[in-house]
Amino acid sequence: MHVVIAEDSAILREGLAQLLTMRGHDVRATVADAPALLEAVTQHRPDVAIIDIRLPPGHTDEGLRAAIQLRRDTPGVGVLIFSQYVETAFVAELLAGGSEGVGYLLKERIVGLDDFDDALHRVAAGGTALDPEVVTQLFGVSRHRDHLAELTARERQVLALMAQGRSNAAIAARLRVTERAVEKHVTNIFLKFDLPPSDVDHRRVIAVLRYLQS
Amino acid sequence: MNGRSARVDNGGMPARVLSVAGRAVVARRSWTGLAYLLLTVPLDVAAAIMLLVGGLLSTVLLITPLGPWLLALLLRAAAALGGARRGLAGRLLDERVPAPPRSMRPGGLLGWRRAALTDPAAWRALAYALAKLPVGLVSLVLGGGCYLYGLTLLTYIPLQEHSPEPWEIVVCLVGGVLLLLVAPWMLRSVLALDRMLIRGLLGPSSAVRRMTDLREVRDRAVVDADATLRRIERDLHDGAQAQLIGVGMHLTMIEELVAAQAPPERVRAAVDTAQGALTAAVTDLRDLIRGIHPPILDRGLSAALATAAARSTVPVTISADLPWRPSPAVESIVYFSACELLTNVGRHSGASNATVDIAICDDVLVLRVCDDGRGGAHPRTGGGLAGLIERARIVDGRLAVESPPAGPTTVTVEIPCPAAGRETG
Question: What torsion, rounded to 10 degrees, do the Cα atoms B342, B347, B352, B353 define?
Fold first, then answer.
């Protein structure tokens, strides 16, 4: 997989590049600010751009702006936000243009490399990868908390994993249940939320996120 | 003319006095002062008559509903006149007095009336107008009189029809010149009286001034606290947090390397990097903690300052005489001020020695940081010294810099510091 990394901390930039290389990815470029990122993406057309939110010179949300621009200008390039904090407002902005090929992970998730790698692949394949913390916050700010309260504990777990962008197979493996059982939970959730059922992974992520954000 | 003749002969004391006096006669501010005096007297008379008549009328009418309205109108007029006088004094006397704050103005005519009647600034402006009339007349007689008699005496002889006696010429000339030389000083003295009236009655009262000052200090303190929190957030985000993530990243890398049975030197390199990042994170945290509240400050100022001195690049001698412990807030401000001043000494002064003296005398804590460096230090807007001045003001303190070119430099910080239990509200 071809990757471009935008991260201003040298130790994280180089560490991430090394780790991804060890996993067999092709790190095409590592850059430290937003303009360099846009240039590198135009030049290398990576499968995924991994982007820190805070980048020089302003150290505010330059990375997020660049990510939104990339999603508009280069639709084939997956965008994975790699940040030290989660802000629901940022998530909403990022997902405003749909949830295909987009991710938002906290930097410490790198410690579980398999999970991180999995998220990277999902984003590259046009799927979604949201940090559990992002989903928790979306649950917290959702106006449908009464509907959320109607879910069983298991259904909530399934919903959280689904909102993170995981497939039924992945959810089943994580919860140590059969895929059949997961499908049943998903159907129940859609029923309780009064949403039309959807089989395609990324479509149902959109449905769930839209629902939580509405 | 007097000025020139005096300057030609510039030997000896009397000549110098004449020269100074002569220059005062032609100085711009003598003429603007005279103009002020002449301009304001008619204004004073008109205002006083209007206010007196109006005041009497409205007092009489107070038994009818018309009285309060007339009085309110009168007070507004007095306030407006006061504003005009402030402008005049600012332009002609260079006596710049800030306008008193406008009282809150609720809506409606009744609200306007109540605001006008209860505006302390308007009442004070009224008092000024009444007090100014006698002061203005006396000023005109004394200040303007000197000029008038001086000029009259000088022009007396040429305008005489009979030929004057020699003693008459001498008396008129000497008297006229003397009066004209004295006139500017007389003018300044009588104007000083008016300045006092303007400062006392047309500007903000001392309570209002204090309030404005406090509001300014509070605003600054709020901005300062916000900036501090942002800086801490930034330091944590870019420093310790990023480094700890780096540690995690390299632990993952070690895991991967071990799993792939990579050569030991690659594993060791990753371990080294992780250890380095961890050390950097801990160091960052320690520096940050010291910047927030140095633990040594719990042991008192002298112990904390001794530690600060040990970190200084310039040798520092410390002497402390603290009969009681200042409040924690004062301790903190004094400590950080001393640290910043010592940093300045190390960075800019080129000094080879510095001293830090700290003492409490008459319930005021005095911090004095001296160095034998090149001097020339002064507070610049937005600079470190300006920041220290602001920080001292928060606790009613002040900071003075004495730093002639070529040094030495002495910075003195004074902060009120009553002993615990003796504090007065």
Answer: -10
